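I am writing to request your help with a piece of structural work I have in hand. Here, with my thanks, is the record as I have it:
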Amino acid sequence: MSDFAEFRTRGRAALLSGRATHDLPMVEGARRWGAAVVLRPEGEIVDRLTDLAATIQAPGHWVHGGRTLHVTLRSLEPYRDRIPADDPLRRTYARALTEAATGLPPAKVRLKGVSPHRGGVLAYGHPEDDTLATLWKRFAHAMESRGVRDLEHGRIRDRWYVSLVHFAGPLRNPREIVEWCDAHVGAEFGVAELTSAEVVQFVLTGQGIRVRSLERAGLGGESDGVSPGPIPG
């Protein structure tokens, strides 16, 4: 089980000591922001996350909201600008994800509390069932059985979260960011019911990130052995 208290302590210390990191615009082959499998919350909880994130004083950085908000299940590959519908890897990801999701119920995750970290600000996710962990294990097995290399090098995901901000340049107000997080450390957003997992591509809009859905597998009886394809957003 993840220790968010320790994570928060390390994040605060990193920002206050000038050790913040930041993302760069996506370029072909870059390790970060490549295709990934994510689960996106819906409904009022998205509004609550979006509204709170909008109060962060983070000019010039990527502040997330709406359909950009997501829980990452697994990073898949280095960044590619184009991933067409007939791309062999994309089709493999879709089949593996559908296999992994079949028969699983929606994932319920309580989103409570925010924390700074070296590269931004996130909201903590506290799973209320085993769906996320089971989906992660099943998907890892489905990918391995298809001979797809593991970009995460065997990393076990035991910390679930929704990113609210990614720093996109040198951080000039670290103390203000930390104080904002301290003020909202106990923020309650509610329980998100995550009803599908998606293979997505991240697109830089100039001011932030947009999430483009490529493939989708439903949770809770929606999957029928064939990926239903992308959903809007």
In short: Residues 122 and 163 are 4 Å apart (CA to CA). DSSP finds five helices and nine strands in the chain.
